[in-house]
Amino acid sequence: MAARPFYVKFTPSTSADVVAYRIYAQKTPDQLQISPASPNVIVPGPFAPDPADGKISIDLQPLFPDLDGQYLIGISAIDDADNESGILEGMTTVDFVVPAAPTDIEFVSG
Hints:
The protein has about 110 residues and is mainly β. It has a four-stranded antiparallel sheet, with no helix packed on it. Helix content is about 0%, strand content about 40%.
């Protein structure tokens, strides 16, 4: 069974030269703010904002398949000169970890 998507939605940068977004995932309460050392993934464009609300949606599950617990998620824009914007942050609780399989199977005839 495929994992259900878990999207982060945000209003895109208004800068015309944005080529990617960096998504950070920092477990809390380990650290209460995103830092450059926080686990992160760069998601390259192009991006198609939803016509209904103008927001970009990115599925976190394939980017961070081992997340389990409360996380501070951060998003920054990266331009074509590799400059990075400030980081937009938000808190969420996720559980992407697959449960342990059952054990100790037995068959008993009656």
